[in-house]
Design a protein that fits this description.
Layout (H helix, E strand, L loop, with lengths): L20 H12 L8 E7 L8 E8 L2
Antiparallel strand pairs: 1-2
Length: 65
């Protein structure tokens, strides 16, 4: 999955989380691991469809808190 440089897949179990929670947790995890620094902008890709192949339908530019 990480065939490109600086691509970090983050696995999580999609439960009844709101749409923003996984994004916030992924940024916090990478910041805590020292991969990202506060203020850095990142491109996040995710999908709205759970359990379906090809469900990645969202790209966001976020700033690490």
């Amino acid at each position: 999955m990480a065939l490109c440089r600086n691509v970090f897949p983050i696995a999580f179990t999609p439960t009844s989380l709101d749409a923003q929670k996984p994004s916030e947790e992924a940024l916090a995890l990478l910041r805590d691991r020292g991969v990202l620094k506060p203020g850095v902008r990142v491109l996040l890709t995710k999908g709205d469809f759970t359990g379906q192949a090809g469900g990645t339908n969202t790209m966001k530019v976020l700033t690490v808190p």
